[in-house]
Every structure is written in structure tokens, then in C-alpha cells.
Fold these 2 entries.
Entry 1:
Amino acid sequence: MSTLRDALSELPDAVFADLLESETSYLLVLDLPGVTAGTADLRVEKGRLVVEARRDKSLPPEFDYVREERPLFLDAELPLPPDAVADDAEATMERGTLEIRLPKRKAATERTIPITAGDDEGTSSAHRKTSGDVDEGTTSARQKKSGDDA
């Protein structure tokens, strides 16, 4: 989330933003005066939230600009928090305030993972014998001990 917080600090001065977090989601609130739902575009690309907004400014015919500092366009790319689920994001626009809800991915529940033994656990193929196998070294050692020369 710190990368998103850092990116918000780099937005133009004309854009005010709040980032809120609950246990289940993030809420990003952007003040975009003069922007409507019809003049804003919001999408996710490559793990980034892309905001494009345009505001209409009407200039009375008898006036000319002496100074103009309110931009007509806002283009911003903000990194999504790593635990945000972009597919389930929702956005609303009311009176120039854009609210974007980004649900968090549910954490895996804590549980013990059982470990099952394989078929040959504890023995290697070099040490495994079946009932019909005879180890020739063991047989000859037994024969010498008993005095059998078979």
C-alpha cells in the first residue's frame, strides 16, 4: 500500500485524494471538481489503476483568461496494493467526488497441512528386499559359519 500512498502524493496540486483502509477493502476518494461519471474513465492495466478525467469549463463571452490554473484534464496511474482485487472494484461519482472501492484478497485461513508418507518412505531401493530375494553375501557368510560347503 505504501507505493499507492506515495503515488497519491505526486498527484497534481489541483487533485485532493484520501486513501482509507478497512479489514476487507481500500477506499480511494479523489476530488475532481467539474468532472462527471460521463467525463471520467477508470480502468486497470498491468496492476495499475488508470484514471482519466476531463472537466468542462465554460468561459463567459465577455471575459478572457488573465490566469488559468485549473487543468481541464487529469491523467493519473496509481499502483494497486498487492492484496487488492481489481476485478471486484466498484466506483461512484457524486458532485465531482470519485470513490473507488477495492476489495482485498481474502487471506488463506490458518490450518495445519497434513503430510502423507510416500510408498517407499524411510527405505531406499538399495536396502529394500522382498520375501523371495536372497542376499548372496549373507548366504555365503552363513554357510561359512555353519561349516557347510554346499
Note: The mean pLDDT is 79.
Entry 2:
Amino acid sequence: MAAPPSQTIDKLGGSWTLNKALSTDFNPLMRLQGLTWLSRKAVNLATITTHITLKPSPSEAASSTRTLILNNSAFNFPGTVEARTLDWEWRDFKDYIWGAFQDRSRIVRKDGLAQEVADGEWVQGLRGEDEWMVESEIRARDGAWSNHTVWGFKSVGAERRLIRHMEARRGEECARAVLVYDFVS
């Protein structure tokens, strides 16, 4: 289902299901991030639902800093919970899927992205509220892999969708994927 106009990066929330038919193959990306063949197979078979909450950060109550909470689940198993404070500061995390990693995230306008990202096909033609996106850099604490992700809204076919552009690196290897989400509620 298309994203309603009320959904913007600044007011992001709700439940979203990964639409694998509209997304590109993200298996190579997961491989570079160290997921085993069996784990990748399970993810490819699962229905992935992401529950998103955007709220003020508890430690920054007097400021405009916000935290994006991503709760991912599949097969009715508990998923991972990612609390991304949108202030572009590195933070340490650990979970049972990705291991120990660091993340930094921010809300940024398309002209504030790194030049190689801002020149990409995906951000061309974005207008109004859709010029804003969430940018995240994630890296394994041991330095084995890194991931650069840009979230935003764009038309796919005739429908406006929430999209994640991801690029993972491990050594000299690089893999890219575009994840497209259906709005559930």
C-alpha cells in the first residue's frame, strides 16, 4: 500500500512491510554484513515488518533531537530494536543478528548529503517534503563491514513509497540494495 501524504520523514511512524517484489536483491548486502547462509535464507523467506516511532530523545528533552525507533520482526519472532538518535553522533549497539556495531543517524535535506549520494539517481526529482531523508552510517565494531543507508519517500510506479537505499562494504567488496516498503497502518 502506498504511503499516505501524512507520512513524511519529520512525522514518520506506523507499521511498514518490506515489499520484496518491488525491492532489489539484498542477499549480497547481508552476506557482506556477515549473516550466515541460513540466516539470509530465513530473512528471504520471512515477511519483514518494521514498526517505526519517531519521538523526542529522553536525554535531549529540551532540544530538537529525536530518536527513530525501528522494531523489526519476522515469523512472529521478536526482532531487533534499533534506537537511532538523529544527531549524527556515533553510538554503540549490540544485537543477536548484527553483533556489535556503531551507528550514527540524522535527518538531512537532499542537498546536505555527501556529493556521491546527492548525485545519485534516487534523489533526482525529489520535491517538497520528500527532499528530507534519514541518513545512517553503520559499522561493525571490529571494522569488518560498514553500511550507508538513506531512507526517504519516492514514487514507485504511480505510488509514493518509503524506500531505503543501502550500500554495504567489506574490504574491497561492495553491494547495494533498494528496499521498498508498504504502509500497513
Note: The helical segments are 27-32, 37-45, 115-118.
